[in-house]
Amino acid sequence: MKNYILFVFLIIAPFQIVAQTQKVQIALLGVFHMGETPDYKQGKLIDLLSASRQEQISEVVDALAKFKPDKIFVENTPDTQPFWNNVYKNYRNGIEPKAHNILYNEIYQLGIKLARQINHPIGVTCVNYIQPDLPTGLKSARNKIDTLLSFYSSELEKKRPPYDAYFKANPSVNNALKNYLLQYESWKDLSIKDHLLKLNSAESIATLHYFNITGWMDNNTNGYGAELAAKEYFRNTKIMQNILLNTSQKDARLLLIIGGGHIQVLKDMLKTHPYFEIVDAATLLK
Fold this sequence. Notes:
The protein is α/β, with parallel strands linked by helices. The protein contains 14 helices and 5 strands.
């Protein structure tokens, strides 16, 4: 038994030593969804494909390229990986996408374009997680836990009030959203780089976290505020898990491009992890 324990230690220890002495840098870039999104409020740019906006996209991509990330994580679920692999393969071969859902997507505009600029061998890596709700959740469940989670998530969604009612019943959350949207309107006249700098400020990220996640608990109008907030936290822990699963000992720098509402909770998890060093997105863009 002693020999067995020693053997296991010798296998595990090298990774722990490498990870502790050479932290992996990870930059979190919060973005607005440039195209279609199920979000309650959208932040797309109508003139995204104009010459001036595309120059601004290039400016952001040039700034991110200096970071030279070993992996570019994006907000799509792992099952869509073959789709984005194909988009990247075509783009490297000079074939630009024509579909609206690709063109007006930050995964393409930032992730895919960045990958080609740094000549990344793979492209982007999908790490998003979507809660499994009925009926599709049960059909795709891999085990008993998945089945129970699908049922729980579906039942909880039935308790979620319509967003209009949610904001009306929660004055503090409603004010936070209204004030944020007023700021956001003013950002639309900025360059995309300056827009992203505003979005990734500490104040902006905290506000997004509040009215997207913790605000559900304020008045707890339907008795399920904590559960609804916890569901959003759970989603982000699954995203964190996907990041960990796709990080190897060879990685020195990682970039995550994801909706701004995810940044606070992911940053909180990553900054307590001994193997990671967070790089401020503003540092990259400036």
